[in-house]
Amino acid sequence: MNGPQLTAQSTPPATVFLAGPDMTIQVLRQMYPAFQDTARYQVLSMAIEWEDIKRQVAQYRPEALVIDADVAPGPEVLRDFLGQLVGTIVLVVLSPAWVKFKGMFEGIQTNVRGVYLAPVNWAAIANATYSAVATERARTLDLAPATSVHRQAAPSGPGSTLVVGTRTIAFTSFAGGTGKSTIAEALAVELAREHIKTLLCSFNSPPAAAGHLGLKVTPNATEWLNRPTVEGFLGSLQHVRGFDDLDVLLAPNDPHILALGNDRDMKDDGSIQNLVLAAYSFNYGAILLDLPPFADTMWAMQALLAANAAVLVCRPTLHDQYAAIRAYQLLTEELGVQARLPPEAIFAVLNFTTPDDSLSAKDFQAAIIEFTGRFPPLLAAFPFIAKLPAVQNRLDLPAIAPECDEFGRAVRSLKGKLVGGALGHNSRKPTSDAGLLGKVLGITFRVQK
């Protein structure tokens, strides 16, 4: 990729993979913030499922794996896995229940560089990781200077954590055809299957969820745009048959109404941003925003400003690398203080991956980082499934269809990382308290009887 390169004098950050048993409490709140220094660390990805860890560590080939042992099925399984890793050093954190196995892991001298007993100081673990990577680089360079690999700069920003409570996740891209609608819909289905009350906002025109989930084009957000009240919000919703915990909100089918929403100021009672924020009064555990691929529409921009997490959906192509750079710059620079998205709440996924890709997940991310100096962690790689369109055409769900098992596995992995176990079952009964809805939006409602 053309563009400014890192100078030969710069010290590339350590590439790190984080693994623990709980994403929300441990990985995002404790581990990830300790690795926020972009000059020292590049967090390639994170995982909480053992099968994901085994597969993705081999895929990303990080310089360092920082792992809480509780994520493994057992001490012998973890020992065997770590002993077989090649090219990745490991720092292991043991809970009190694992203390008697400390010597076992310290005995893996091929790549284990530290074994620590919880509770730990994660900043100290991060420092130890950086030191261990620097030592390993020097050793590798001494052994074989010609094979020293140039590493790229890091993605993350100032440390804070994702919002706990309602997850409002925007799926976005500056390129069309990335499959973000399919991924957003599949995640919505997976959440609803676990009885997490979920709202899917399908804001493309025409809305993809209508065709994929067998819905009618009406009702849709027209009801809200014409009547920004509790009744108007409820009148905008559709329900997916067989999923009591999944509501769907479609963009208007009428191009004139679509343009009306696009031209409406964010401060207007019936704005697109206020439409998304209104959902907070209806007990949703997750709000998923499937956004148009072009940022010059308010159906994308205002919805992004209401989100507290974002996922850039990309294909392993040069075109999508440029599109990903543009999208990431929009989220981190141009929206500025308007957005509710800290850098560590921005993630990316690759879709339509195959074994023959010339751009691996790691190469895709690395080339962008070489150009921009930063890019968010890739949380999942969705495989190309030739039968997936046929599954959608017969109105089956790729998240659970047997023909799309690998796709469904990637969806469940992404769910664990974005949502984790922090969200419990929410009552389906929405509040009709116009005062509460008004407090969320900061506006006064005129509830029509």
Lay out the secondary structure.
Blueprint: E1 14-19, H1 23-34, E2 41-47, H2 50-60, E3 64-68, H3 75-84, E4 89-94, H4 102-106, E5 112-117, H5 122-143, E6 167-172, H6 180-193, E7 198-202, H7 208-213, H8 222-226, H9 230-235, E8 237-239, E9 246-250, H10 255-263, H11 272-278, E10 286-290, H12 298-305, E11 309-314, H13 318-334, E12 346-353, H14 361-372, E13 378-383, H15 388-393, H16 405-418, H17 434-441
Parallel strand pairs: 1-2, 1-3, 3-4, 4-5, 6-10, 6-11, 7-9, 7-10, 11-12, 12-13
Antiparallel strand pairs: 8-9
Helix pairs in contact: 6-16, 13-14
Would you kindly provide a written description of the structure presented here, covering whatever features stand out?
This protein has 449 residues and is of the alpha/beta class. The protein folds into 2 domains: 134 residues, 3-Layer(aba) Sandwich (Rossmann fold), CATH 3.40.50; 203 residues, Rossmann fold (3-Layer(aba) Sandwich), CATH 3.40.50. It is 38% helix and 16% strand. The protein has 17 helices and 13 strands. β1, α1 and β2 form a beta-alpha-beta unit. The longest helix is centred in the N-terminal third of the chain and has 22 residues. The chain is elongated, with a radius of gyration of 23 Å. The chain starts with 13 loop residues before the first strand and ends in an 8-residue tail after the last helix.
